[in-house]
Amino acid sequence: MKNMTGLIKEVKRLCASQRLCVLATQSEGRPYSNLVAFAETDELQSLIFVTNRNTQKYTNSISNNKVAMMIDSRTNQPSDFNTALAVTALGTVEEVAESEHDVILSIYLSKHPYLAEFVKMPDQAFMRVKVTEYVIAHFDRVQVIHFDDPK
After folding, report:
1. Which among 147, 139, 138, 127 has a CA at the least distance from the CA of 44?
2. DSSP assignment, residue 39?
3. Is the pTM of this model over 0.85?
């Protein structure tokens, strides 16, 4: 079993290597998932994505702020059963205050410069997931990193 520092480094490497993740939301007991372009903060306590306010993921996120984001290293090859890593971030999502947009936008566009026009479109919401824990799953073992509750 890896120590906590090793696990955090593994999660950082995975986040840095991936551009998309699966966002899971729910409303009235019905699960819903989407692919989203995400960015991570240096300390991994927040994951950021941008969405239009007219989407189901936005509506679900506002009505129930408990979400999961799954980031993985699969290559759709048989070797994935032995080598793929899947990390699920559990936490609460919020729309970022306008006063924080510049900082969040800088983090997001440093990872996704090709989305500069997308983030400027009307009615876009900058969303932040405050991560409470990461569940790190290799094929045969699962480990967890817990953060303090980000009230």
Report:
1. 147
2. E
3. yes
Average pLDDT, the chain: 92
- The candidate with the shortest Cα–Cα distance to 128, out of 100, 86, 88, is 100
Question: CATH: 2.30.110.10, 3.40.1260.10, 1.10.760.10, 2.60.120.10. Which one for 4-146?
Answer: 2.30.110.10
Q: How far apart are CA 130 and CA 151, in angstroms?
A: 9
In whole angstroms, give the CA distance from residue 118 to residue 115. Answer: 5
State both tokens at 24. 């899971």
Bridge partners (DSSP) of residue 104 are none
Reported as half-sphere exposure (CB side, CA atoms, 13 A), residue 38 has a value of 28
Q: What would the pLDDT profile of 34-86 be if each residue is shown by its tens digit?
A: 999 999 999 999 999 999 999 999 999 999 999 999 999 998 888 888 888 99
Q: Would you state the pLDDT for residue 82?
A: 84
